[in-house]
Amino acid sequence: MREVSVVLLNYNRLNLTKKAVYHLLLSQDVDFELIVVDNNSHDGTREYLEGLADPRVKKVLNKRNLYFAGGNNSAIRYCSARSVLFTQNDMFFKPYSLRRLLDFKRSLPDSGCIGIGGGFVSSDSHLYEISDWWKRPPRAFDYIPVDFLSGCLLLLERSILTTKRVRFDPKYKLYWEDVDFCHQITGLRKPLYMVNNKVIGAEHLRSGTITPLLGEQERERIREQSHSYYMKKWSSFLHDRRKFQNSIDYNFLVSGTRLSVVPPRSTSRSSVVCEVRKAEFLEFSGKKKKAEREYRRVARINPKNFFALAGTLRMLSHHGESKDSGEILKLSNKCLSREALTSLGAPVRSTVTTAMLRIARRHADSRRYREAIFFYSKLHSVARSTKTKAVCEIERAKLRFLLGESARAEREMRRWLKRKRIRGLDKNMYAAAHFYLGEISREKGDEDAARFLYKRTLRLDPHHARARKRISQLR
Predict the structure, then answer these.
(1) Using 50, 70 and 90 to split pLDDT, how confident is the model at 122?
(2) HSE (CB half, 13 Å, CA atoms) of 236?
């Protein structure tokens, strides 16, 4: 079996196609096949392809222009190698480029796809490309996990196309089809890696396969069309991205000032940033255990890396056991320190708050009320959100009642209920406060006050079974 099938897409760019084919056929030490796809060109491309006698070259001649997605899809059934490389006729390879690209793929066995251009997708569907990352001398294994890869070069295993049925969506004429394709691979829980082009040695002219042949207005119309379709198709992905916003500021990813070319196990600051990004990618992909290991490793390298500490705390909040209480306590003290809250951005502070609430509730569910009260108090002292403070206050008062501290719990609940109603706070929180005040009144023997509070609870939460049961008992 050949090592790689190279799919080269062309449409009315014969001069570029000739140059691209010439450079690819010079490739050394690689057993490959070249599949040239022509989207019904009218510039002599077909005659040129029919004249190619090299046995490594296959021709796919489409009867109409299928654009980027359809053209690449039409070549998949002709691929017979172990890997598939999608590229364009404005990409020129040096004789050693294919060999180095395949070596890179072998060095990243868990990867779904690798490429030389890419970046990140924000929650508002903006693409942030990393353009200046490779402005330093090349090294042996330089890479970074990304959200999407540019369609100019995509290398992946053929099994992803045949077994998993991943395809370019033909509803995109131009633009966003490569981002959509990458999201499908990410959905298989396979990471995407952008590798150092200075090692690969490929040259991208960015003249485009089809784009230069269209007018500016037509390009803008197609771009808007594709973007609207992408937003509709991947709305759930973008919604999840809003809930879990990346902790790395996209601005310095674009400028490349904090991401430099370094070996993956280096302890330099820029390498640590890359490793945190890798851990976040694993977390977002649902691989919690692997993400926790990465976060812990980065925290050992740099104990002041609050992004790694916050990530470890989030992971422990999902599956930490009772034996982790001491570690959770230390992490919470570090993550909620003034220095940490100043360093972390608002999205990450939000994830830390959610993790702390989850940890406190888990302690309360396991009847470790004192520890739960401590976590709620700790979070209350540093929380900036009025809603978070309110949740901490009412949960803490409930736990005090369960510990038998009825007088203190009553004071805290009444003080809380006298405040102005907080917008966005769940009605069930107010219902819980009235219910526990009713329980305290019932303990004191004031049945009328207890009945009134239970009825108030049912008005706020008609499905509150315990309040309904208490009313029937008092009759």
Answers:
(1) low
(2) 3
